Amino acid sequence: MFELDGEAVRYGVTPVENSFLMDYLPAARGDYVKVYLWGLFACACKGPEYTLEEMAQELFMTVPEVEAALRYWERRALVTRVSDAPPSFRFYSPMQRASAPAALRVDMEYVGFAEAVYAAFGDKRKVSPGEIALAWEWVKDVGLTPEAVLMLLHHCMAQRGPQFSFKAAEKLAVSMKEAGVVSPEDAESFLQHNQSIHEGVRKVLSRMGKRRLASDDELALYEKWLSEWQFEPQAILDACREMTSGDPSFKYLDSILNGLRARSGARTGEQVARQLEQERPEKDQASSLFSALGVKLTGPAAALEYRELSKAQPHAVLLLAAEECRRKGKNLEYMHWLAEDWQKKGYCTEEAVKEYLDKRHGLESLLREVFEACGHRGNPTVADLMLYKKWHEEWGYDQEMICAAAQQASGAEGGKIPYLNKVLEAWHEAGITEVSQVQERKAPAARGKTKSVSAQQYTQREYTEAELLSVSDDLIEEARKYRGKSGMGPGDGGA
After folding, report:
1. Domain 6-100 falls in which CATH fold?
2. Which of 17, 104, 130, 312 is the most buried (most CB within 10 A)?
3. Residue 239 burial by CB count (10 A; 0-12/13-18/19+): exposed, middle or buried?
4. Does the pTM of the predicted model rise above 0.85?
5. What pLDDT digit, counting tens, does each position of 14-63 carry?
6. How far apart are CA 219 and CA 464, in angstroms?
7. Domain ranges in the chain?
8. Secondary structure (3-state) at 277
9. Distance of CA 423 to CAs 24, 113, 246, 409, 441, Å?
10. What does the pLDDT look like over 296-329, one tens digit per residue?
11. Do the Cβ atoms of 251 and 204 come closer than 8 Å?
């Protein structure tokens, strides 16, 4: 067995053909040339057990970088991978490969494409072999021409910067194929349209006060607005003015444009501007209404809610309903019910609703005085109002007598209103009609916890809302005089 002394290797030579230096070296990256030369050296001096890990360590490279370089030389047909476990490579002479150019034609086409991609990026970005392989798939699998793919890469670099994702660009390559792009002229036309989308999205983002690149979803939405919904770019920008609350977004703008599309045929900038100007009064009315209600509701949702409410009542009546809901601490759902309820009862003008509310509030005010006198907590209910009507109309008691009875009920530990009803019932049966008579009579012996009584089970008569509010103005005036004598005042709050 014979072997060369280890030190003698340093003094030997590794043959490199001039054809390699002239035909291959100029177009190859420096680290690829380094791997090829070291591979030639390893073939002569390292032996078959030499590994990729050892080569990477001695060249101060990573194993993936060495593998990428070897794949490059595989495509140039100067290296062949003969096994995977362990990785094994065979090197060929450039002159040997030059004798079979037809067999290398496809590889050389790939090499030319790769060199064009490297040249396109220059020193702006280090393109990986995997990225070039992906771009080559757009030629072989998707069916684009190499020229179209290079135009696509230049376009993506201009729109998103040199660090764009090749994977994201693949979607655009598929779109080009679906659009029937064949020639460089087709590609130029397609990419100009795509560029207009990017520019439009940038303007929308700028109008929103956002300084960033557009997402794929945002680009898709803008494409839909242009191509499917047929909005002009200026119309889209004009619609941005409607994003008056919250964080403006493409989803928010999409709902605005969808609403415009459903309500009118406005598509140009002039048409959209005119349509939005016509809708301005409705928008202002909706804003004032929901502000009065104390609800933060804007945009398309506010417009939709307002249109539904407007079907039941005019704006002036809706404002009164909003104030009433807010006074009672009710929500938007209750307001819908209230507007429809007033409509059913015939209260459809501002004057009619004000008269209705004045009477209702007057009765509630009287009951609040009664509640204060007996120490009852809570707001007057419809049942309480009907009970009060019984005391006044059926039993003939005025506010002074009712409040006197309420003071006697203040000591009840259970339900004060049922006990108050029992006091007045006892007075009615005894024929007591004046306060002076009360001092001659003791209160009913029911000071402890009261049981369920018929106080609110008033079977004597069922009242309608209209009858409930038919309490004479004289009674309310009488209550005002009573307040003046007693120094009592109406409580605040809602029923």
Report:
1. Arc Repressor Mutant, subunit A (1.10.10)
2. 312
3. buried
4. no
5. 889 898 898 888 878 889 999 999 999 998 888 788 899 999 999 999 99
6. 60
7. 6-100, 143-264, 279-348, 383-486
8. helix
9. 114, 103, 57, 8, 11
10. 877 677 878 888 898 899 999 999 999 989 988 8
11. no
